[in-house]
Amino acid sequence: LLHFRCSLLCWRLPGSAAHQPAMKRFFQPVLKDGSPAKKRPAGAATSDCVDGPAPTAADAGGDGPPGEEPRRFVTWNANSLLLRMKSDWPAFCQFVARVDPDVICVQEVRMPAAGSKGAPKNPSELKDDTTSSREEKQTVLRALSSSPFKDYRVWWSLSDSKYAGTAVFMKKKFEPKKVSFNLDRTSSKHDADGRVIIVEFESFLLLNTYAPNNGWKEEENSFQRRRKWDKRMLEFVQQVNKPLIWCGDLNVSHDEIDVSHPDFFSDAKLNGYIPPNKEDCGQPGFTLAERQRFGNILSQ
Q1: Which residues belong to the active site?
Q2: Are residues 81 and 223 located together in one domain of the fold?
Q3: What InterPro entries does UniProt report for this protein, alphabetically (predicted)?
Q4: Is 182 within any annotated ligand binding site?
């Protein structure tokens, strides 16, 4: 199980093009004891993509032969894809053109699913039944019809409103075996709020998730919602029968090394409120209960 939680991260399997221009490194790597990581030897190849497992025979080859599989991945919490298209799109296009990912996983798309008010929604399609939604859809389609995104196809999993939602952009030369939208892989329905996209290839699974935030208060049911999500995630990884790449906004920081001030986040309160159970105390995403459940998932 390979997992990534990051606002913007590029990840690459060995065998993809080397010596790509590097992304800016915002945080210097450190070891678990807090000491700086050793620098690479002079002349060593560098990349901000993270190397993964060795490729299999199924993903060997050149540009798009039968059986080729993606090797280079980007994951990004866009916090409103439409807003990014209106304000930051040229910069992101430059990044994509430079890094040349095979797959881009996006979280917090925050665009509503197709369907009129009161009618069943289609979470695989963008809403376009009002003047404003048609304009927004056209903005998205224009952005995706130009380089470099014209070389990608897209799968959406959208909420009923401008909330949550995920997307997967994949180069058209790749043919996944199956794309599904629910942690229950026997279900044809999309996960609530469009939080899940699963892309299956011959040699691995790619899971893109936007995990629900734990929240601060038990009585708001957010704790229960997160517990249920973690239970479903545990069941999912226990049933997976091939290597899994799990990326997205996982809304959890697993270890103390993952936060700047662990004591501060462990003791954080909202307006003085203290949850009934000690393991639920602290900053959402860094409570003991969440960290333990997440660790259990990773151990599978």
Answers
A1: 210, 249
A2: no
A3: AP_endonuc_1, Endo/exonu/phosph_ase_sf, Endo/exonuclease/phosphatase
A4: no
